[in-house]
Write a structure and sequence with these properties.
Layout: H1 6-52, E1 61-66, E2 69-74, E3 87-88, E4 92-97, H2 109-112, E5 121-128, E6 152-153, E7 159-162, E8 172-178, E9 184-190, H3 192-197, E10 202-208, E11 212-218, H4 226-238, E12 241-244
Parallel strand pairs: 1-3
Antiparallel strand pairs: 1-2, 2-12, 4-5, 5-11, 6-7, 7-8, 8-9, 9-10, 10-11
Length: 245
């Protein structure tokens, strides 16, 4: 059998190189096409996510376990996207529109996005109880020692106590009133510029369910409805409790 000539070897080599080049070009175009598809799909998904701005309008319930408590909570009242997965959680953050106490929806998006400074949202946190007394229970043994003795009249029958300078609660005041439950209503509220800049300048925590603490934050202007707000928040969140483990 005759050995191939130099020209034949060069021709075969060139064909092999051309073949490899064509395959490389094919793979590059295939990769670009795949990337284009992925970008398109991701763009649509991310675009929808950005449009929702982290909210969800899904009313379907998620089963969340906190401590000894099983809660069934609509996804559209769960504040953070990562928390909308069923299972155990150390803490659950919720939000509601006042006074309807509904969750996020397209018609309500301006309220939840605080468009035009609406401030109609109540923020709620549920977590295992860390203190033996809630805010009402801390009034006499703790807060009384930290506030000025003489209050000023507040909204809807509340009394406003300024914290002393040494108390460590700068720009805050304590709102105190007789709650409908028989216990003393107590909430802490920001004052001055801090209150003007805050979406929810007042805070109250209460003992809740089996070993849980419920903290809710709300705009100071809601203090005019403090009795209705306190009662409604407690009932709304209590409705999520399904059972104790």
């Amino acid at each position: 059998m005759a050995n191939p000539t130099i020209d034949e070897v060069q021709s075969d080599s060139q064909e092999f190189i051309d073949s490899r080049f064509v395959m490389r070009v094919f793979y590059v175009f295939a990769a670009l096409a795949a990337a284009s598809i992925l970008i398109s799909v991701a763009g649509k998904t991310i675009g929808a996510s950005i449009a929702m701005d982290g909210h969800s309008d899904d009313p379907a319930h998620r089963e969340i376990v906190i401590g000894n408590n099983v809660l069934s909570v609509p996804a559209n009242v769960i504040r953070f996207e990562k928390a909308r997965q069923p299972g155990e959680a150390h803490r659950l953050d919720l939000y509601f529109r006042w006074p309807s106490l509904d969750g996020y929806s397209q018609p309500a998006r301006d309220d939840f996005n605080n468009r035009d400074g609406r401030r109609n949202i109540v923020f709620v946190s549920i977590e295992p109880r860390m203190m033996s007394r809630d805010m009402s229970g801390r009034l006499e043994p703790i807060y009384r020692r930290l506030v000025e003795p003489t209050p000023t009249p507040g909204p809807a029958g509340l009394q406003a106590y300024r914290f002393s300078e040494a108390a460590g609660y700068a720009n805050e005041e304590l709102m105190v009133g007789p709650a409908s439950t028989g216990e003393t209503y107590v909430a802490r509220c920001l004052t001055g510029q801090a209150a003007a800049e805050s979406l929810a300048g007042c805070e109250r925590d209460v003992h809740f369910a089996d070993g849980l603490s419920l903290t809710y934050r709300f705009p100071a202007r809601f203090l005019g409805d403090w009795k209705a707000l306190d009662d409604a928040i407690r009932k709304r969140v209590a409705g999520f409790i399904q059972a104790a483990r």
